[in-house]
Design brief:
518 residues, alpha/beta, Rossmann fold, 9-stranded mixed sheet, 7-stranded mixed sheet, 16 strands, tRNA (guanine) methyltransferase activity, cytoplasm, RNA binding, THUM3 protein, SAM-dependent_MTases_sf
């Protein structure tokens, strides 16, 4: 997958990019140094699909990954100039740059001591390179969204990027959308110590204008420590209005394990207080520029800086349904069936179309057919596909490709497809928790396995099915053992529900083509 540019060209492009950002020759030179900057990237991935993600990283970036003991995370090293390719990975939800990792951190048993250690740690951490990676990442995001350019030299130079009100508003919408993801402090704490905390209890203000006036405080940017001549960082500190800009930040702590004397709230609060003191940044829970991550899993601790504002898994879908599947999970499921060019891939219960849309984007040499019995779902899937088509057109109108994907309303038990004509079936079976009911599943599952067994090619056909109703699925599978055998099971977590992804292989037994209902 994706060939990289030759290193020399990359360095020059980096310097040019620095030139684009409206910087002088000195900064362009710094751009060339950035080309040599390496980053350890942490990525959160759907649990159970860590190896899939590691394979994708090796294929597309050529880096080896380390799979964390903390499920759902992988780590890999890349040159900072590969960040754009990192953001194009299909199997990762969120990305962060690792500041430092502790394999066996000795937390003190006394709460006060443990928290004091975390505070003291802030001064000792190697922030300089990770912050450069964060800035480079920001400049890439800016290029994409064409927001106001700002000086790359100093993190302190990034204030609220708003000219007047319009763009500021857009900025705030993003953050709110993200708030929905994982940041509801109370609800999240209950889900096992995942949590976010406002370090100094600073309430966020909304008015953009008023923020501009209140930002004249003097800024001691971390960069001063890192750039030998303090003057360089100093220059970077004035925004376009000629006043100092202060970075806003928040700390998000995820803690798992029963040996800790402190909660994730307390850790975030005290670590955040120390971060604020160290950088002279301003704590802000909603309009933050920098999100510092503190991931604690038993004795492992990782400090990082977030590189994605909202999870990448939302990338394809514009019209969400009640149970829209994360595209990263869809990617993992599709990858399990190893699609080959010209394969016909069917999702008979497509919902909003997450699986076929991911499939068409990543395996364009296959033909993807999506269907659902619910007209509302079919409509949403069609809307998502047309947004995808529009996105493709806007990229390069001369070469706009169609998407090898069709959406049809049908009955899952009576598919209008010829026996033995399909290579792969990939679908998210009704869970019975959010949609449908377990009672229905007892009838639906066997009928569904029979029908997909009928349309799949004997001997080579395969199916990847996600379900939470594992008992029911096992029972149904035992009834169709002559046409399907289970090759692999991956345990996953879907929105807090324990679920399983089954890879089934079609036996060479021909399907009974008796169709009493036609």
């Amino acid at each position: 997958g994706g060939g990289g540019r030759p290193p020399r060209a990359a360095g020059m492009a980096e310097a040019e990019a620095a030139g684009d950002a409206g910087l002088g020759p000195a900064a362009a030179q710094e751009g060339a140094q950035l080309a040599e900057l390496a980053a350890v990237i942490g990525a959160t991935v759907p649990t159970g699909f860590e190896h899939t993600a590691a394979e994708e990283v090796r294929e597309k970036l050529g880096s080896a990954s380390r799979i964390s003991k903390d499920r759902g995370k992988i780590y890999f090293e890349v040159p900072a100039r590969s960040l754009p390719q990192v953001h194009r990975l299909r199997s990762v939800d969120n990305l962060f740059v690792v500041v430092q990792e502790f394999k066996d951190y000795q937390f003190k048993e006394n709460k006060e001591d443990a928290l004091k250690d975390l505070e003291d740690l802030v001064k000792k951490l190697p922030w300089t390179d990770p912050l450069k990676v964060w800035e480079l990442n920001n400049s890439l995001k800016k290029k994409k969204t064409k927001r106001k350019k700002y000086n790359l030299q100093s993190p302190a130079s990034r204030g609220k990027l708003s000219d007047g009100g319009g763009e500021g508003e857009a900025d705030q919408n993003n953050t709110n959308e993200q708030e929905d993801c994982a940041q509801n402090p109370v609800a999240v704490e209950a889900a096992g110590g995942r949590d976010t905390e406002n370090p100094q209890g600073v309430a966020s203000r909304n008015g953009v204008e008023e923020e501009e006036d209140n930002e004249q405080s003097d800024v001691k940017a971390e960069v001063q420590a890192s750039s030998e001549s303090g003057s360089k960082a100093g220059e970077g500190q004035t925004g376009e209005e000629g006043e100092a800009k202060v970075l806003r930040f928040r700390v998000t702590c995820n803690r798992a394990g029963d040996k800790h004397s402190f909660t994730s709230n307390e850790a975030a609060r005290d670590f955040g207080g120390a971060v604020q003191e160290h950088f002279q940044w301003k704590a802000d829970m909603t309009n933050f520029d920098v999100e510092v991550l503190l991931n604690i899993h038993n004795n492992e601790m990782v400090v990082g800086i977030a590189l994605t504002e909202e999870s990448l898994h939302r990338r394809n879908i514009t019209h969400f349904g009640p149970t829209t599947l994360r595209s990263t999970l869809a990617y993992g499921m599709l990858r399990l069936c190893d699609p080959q060019p010209t394969d016909i891939i069917v999702d008979p219960m497509c919902g909003t179309g997450a699986i076929p849309i991911e499939g068409a984007a990543e395996w364009p040499c296959c033909y993807h057919i999506a269907g659902d019995n619910n007209p509302q779902a079919v409509k949403r899937a069609a809307n998502n596909i047309s947004s995808l088509l529009r996105k493709n057109e806007s990229k390069d109108s001369s070469a706009a490709l169609g998407v090898p994907l069709d959406v049809i309303q049908w009955d899952i038990c009576r598919l209008p497809l010829r026996t033995g004509s399909v290579d792969i079936v990939v679908t998210d079976m009704p869970f019975g928790k959010r949609i449908g009911s377990k009672k229905k599943n007892w009838d639906l599952y066997p009928a569904c396995l029979m029908e997909i067994g009928r349309i799949c090619t004997p001997g080579t056909g395969r199916a990847v099915l996600l379900t939470q109703d594992k008992k029911c699925f096992a029972k149904a599978l035992s009834r169709v053992g002559h046409i399907w055998r289970r090759a692999q099971t991956v345990w996953v977590n879907v929105g807090g529900l324990h679920a399983a992804v089954y890879l089934l292989r079609r036996t060479s037994e021909p399907a009974q083509d008796t169709r009493p209902f036609w």
